[in-house]
Protein: SnoaL-like domain-containing protein
Organism: Paractinoplanes atraurantiacus
Amino acid sequence: MTATETALDRYITFMGRAAHDTALLDDLSSIFAVDATVAMGTPEVVAGLDAITEFYRGFYAGAGDSKHFWTTTVLDDGTLKAHFIVAGRNPDGSLMARSGIEHATVNDDGLITSLTVTFTGALDN
């Protein structure tokens, strides 16, 4: 965890917990604005809190145990950027790792309005 908590830090922490307790996904309104968008390493954009919630339900349906590490920077324009790595074990016992960069914009209420994830590396065995 970083010394200063931003909305992006809250998101990454929340998602790390949701991997172990998917019931937490019912509270994504504490992280995302109602009209937020998420682009998770693909050109497709998930728009709106309900669609985002369903997206993460599907994302975590086949997830195993994992651990996130990251550093967050507040850019000059007020947007947030986090470099991250996540490593874990898939439900079948195989190992996985991902690295990437997340960019987020945040509204005045401290909720994410736009999240873009770009994966920069992967390991699956």
